[in-house]
Amino acid sequence: MPDRDTVAWNTMLGAYAQHGIVDGKKILFCLIANLNFVSWTTMLTAYAQNGYPSDTISATAMISAFAATGNDREACALFENMPERNVFSWTALLQGYAENRLLDKAKSYFDKMPAWNLVPWTVLVVSYAQSERLEIAQDLFVEMPERSIVTWNALLAAIGHAKSLEEAKLFLVTMPAWNLVTKNTISQIKEVKQSETTS
Question: Is 83 helix (H, G, I), strand (E, B) or coil?
């Protein structure tokens, strides 16, 4: 079949499911092509009918897969249809929006989360910092119940690039710990500021 579209792939996937073929290279071959919500729904149904668990973990993995390929609508649709969600499924959707620079959507789902851990906080702070939306990143950073070296370094870089080397150094003094990324970030900020001065 020289011209394969999503309908054709889904038909083939459904045929495999009806015959109980839910594992191995044939299923993966089908899924490599154009994924959509029907593809994943068929896959989940096939696993469920053949005794495999179709649970929150499976759906969360699929949300991550959709998000990683820029299919944020499909990721959201799957998330909204989940009968049960946990912090990992919430974080998968949040990270998908963040990676595709849909930060307002990411923040809206973050605000709806029934519970948080360090990961969604970190995803949001780092994403806002890297997008040069420093004020929001700083506000979230202050609100964080606990912080990781990743969030400290992200905010350090954002402050250094958006403001001055001196302000970055002031922030550096407040950091409870440094690592190689911290030192490299300061070096990069120095180089950028020096080039701005000489240009």
Answer: coil
155-to-110, 111, 112, 163 alpha-carbon distances in Å: 19, 21, 24, 11
pTM: 0.67
Rg (CA), the chain: 22
Are 43 and 18 spatial neighbours (Cβ–Cβ below 8 Å)? no
In whole angstroms, what is the distance from residue 85 CA to residue 95 CA? 15
Rounded CA separation 154/167 (Å): 14
The token pair that represents 53 in the structure block: 């668990």
Q: Which residues contact 107 (CB under 8 A, 6 or more apart)?
A: 124, 136
Domains of the chain, residue spans: 116-199
Return the pLDDT at 25.
32
The pLDDT assigned to 1 comes to 42
d(CA 144, CA 155): 13
Q: How many CB atoms lie within 10 A of CB 15?
A: 11
